Every structure is written in C-alpha cells, then in structure tokens.
C-alpha cells in the first residue's frame, strides 16, 4: 500500500480561514512552521541516539530509543497537525507532506525492502509561458507546436514529464498479535525514516536493480529539452 500525504486544512484558530486574509495568515503561519522545522532539523537530524541503515537517511532503534527521539519532534509534529489534521489518523493514516521534511516514524517494523523504481514527475500547464518558466527553454519550432495545440482547442492542456529514479522502502510491520501486515510503500529520501526495529529485523536491498517503469501512455513528444518532455494532455 502506498501513502499519499494528508491534505492541507487552515487551522480553526484563524479568523475566517476561507477569506483572502485568512488564507494569507495561514500561509504566513505555515511558512514560520517550515522555518522552525528546518532549524530544528539542522540540529537534530541525523539522530544521535539511533543507528543508520546502510547509506540511507533511515535510522533504527528499539522502542524506547525511537519514542525518545520522536518526543523531541513532538511540538513540531503537533503544530504540523494543525495544518494537516488527517495526518496519521484512521482510516488512511496518511503521512505529513514531504515538503515539511519532518521524519517519518514507523513502529513494529520487521523488515525493510529498499528499491529503486524508474518513475516520472508530471506537471500540467495551460500556457506555454507558464510551462517554460517551470521547465526551461525550447526551440522556436517546439514552442510553435505547443502554442498551436493550445490555440486550436480551448480545452487543451500541455503536460510535462521528467523521468527520474524513485527511491522507496517497502516497510513490513507486525500488528499487536504478531501477524505480518501488508507492506507500506514509503518515499523517505527527503524526510528521513525512523523505524522501531523488532527482534530479527531484516533489510532487503534491491537498489542495484531498478524496477521497470510501467508502460507510458504518452509518446512522440511535442518538445524535449533533455529534461522535460512535453505532450498534449490526454
């Protein structure tokens, strides 16, 4: 099971959070939180009481060690929950957004399977100007082709794809009865991953053989600058 991130919700202590001023206030508070997280992370990550796994930003410890390290982050975790109240709550147990760069804590871990997967980042655009601002320059002919797509159909959009190698961990945990649960697929490179390792904890490292990416529905790009390939969005 993969885990998307919890959705943003303006804190209820903001006056009229759906108004223009309320949204602006929420952004200021979130920006302050991100600065505080960055400063704290600089001091507290990597953890000084846990053990690093391979060359990864993954650290393991026993229950007491992981709980002690999580307690250091508790104030920031609670502040983050004001903006993402669904985080780590049933039924989906969604994580906080990776952009916050708060480490992910997972308990009762029996096995980690490290993988690399060929993946792609995707962005959609309604104008060539917005696309080139984000994706860089293209030849005049490519710009003309992209412009023609948008000019000839008011509903058309452009989509940009960038291929990359996605590093993931499949985390196998046990429940309170000791039964092995379905694995969680976790992206951890930006946040770091903290695991409470059970006895006989094992690591399977498959990073040397990247998994194949699924077949792509897009081919014959309108433009390609070596990083981003551009298509008409389907």
What does this 3D model show about the protein?
It is globular and about 60 Å long. It is an alpha+beta fold and 234 residues long. The longest helix is centred in the first third of the chain and has 25 residues, at 20-44. 28% of the residues lie in helices and 31% in strands. A hairpin with a 4-residue loop joins strand 7 and strand 8 (229-232). Strands 1, 2, 3, 4, 5, 6, 7 and 8 form an eight-stranded mixed sheet that branches. The chain has helices at 20-44, 63-72, 74-83, 128-135, 140-151; strands at 51-52, 58-61, 104-125, 158-173, 184-186, 193-211, 223-224, 229-232. Helix 1 (20-44) runs antiparallel to helix 3 (74-83). Residues 1-22 are annotated as: Disordered.
What topology emerges from the helices and strands here?
Elements (H helix, E strand, L loop, with lengths): L19 H25 L6 E2 L5 E4 L1 H10 L1 H10 L20 E22 L2 H8 L4 H12 L6 E16 L10 E3 L6 E19 L11 E2 L4 E4 L2
Parallel strand pairs: 2-6, 3-6
Antiparallel strand pairs: 1-2, 3-4, 4-5, 4-8, 7-8
Helix pairs in contact: 1-3
Structure summarized in a few sentences:
A hairpin with a 4-residue loop joins strand 7 and strand 8. It contains 5 helices and 8 strands; from the N terminus they run H-E-E-H-H-E-H-H-E-E-E-E-E.
Task: List the defining traits of the structure above.
alpha+beta; 234 residues; globular; 31% strand
Fraction of residues in β-strands: 25-35%
What's the number of structural domains?
1
Major beta sheet summary: 8 strands, mixed
Shape: globular
Number of strands: 8
Helix content: 25-40%
Question: What is Rg?
Answer: 21 Å
Low confidence ranges: none
State mean pLDDT (0 to 100 scale).
91
N-to-C series of helices and strands? HEEHHEHHEEEEE
Distance between the termini: 27 Å
- Derived structural class: alpha+beta
């Amino acid at each position: 099971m993969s885990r998307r991130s919890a959705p943003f919700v303006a804190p209820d202590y903001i006056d009229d959070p759906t108004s223009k001023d309320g949204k602006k206030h929420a952004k200021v508070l979130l920006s302050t939180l991100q600065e505080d997280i960055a400063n704290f992370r600089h001091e507290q990550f990597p953890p000084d009481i846990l053990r690093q796994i391979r060359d990864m930003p993954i650290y393991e410890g026993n229950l007491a060690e992981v709980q002690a390290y999580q307690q250091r982050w508790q104030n920031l975790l609670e502040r983050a929950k004001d903006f993402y109240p669904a985080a780590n709550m049933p039924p989906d147990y969604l994580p906080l957004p990776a952009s916050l760069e708060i480490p992910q804590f997972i308990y009762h871990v029996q096995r980690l399977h490290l993988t690399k997967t060929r993946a792609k980042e995707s962005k959609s655009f309604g104008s060539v100007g917005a696309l080139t601002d984000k994706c860089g320059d293209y030849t005049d002919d490519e710009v003309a082709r992209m412009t023609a797509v948008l000019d000839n159909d008011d509903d058309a959009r452009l989509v940009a794809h960038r291929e990359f190698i996605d590093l993931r961990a499949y985390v196998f945990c046990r429940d309170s009865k000791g039964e092995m649960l379905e694995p969680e697929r976790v992206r951890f490179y930006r946040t770091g991953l903290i695991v409470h390792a059970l006895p006989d904890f094992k690591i399977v490292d498959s990073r040397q053989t990247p998994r194949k990416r699924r077949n792509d529905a897009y081919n014959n790009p309108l433009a390609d600058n070596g990083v981003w390939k551009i298509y008409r969005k389907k």
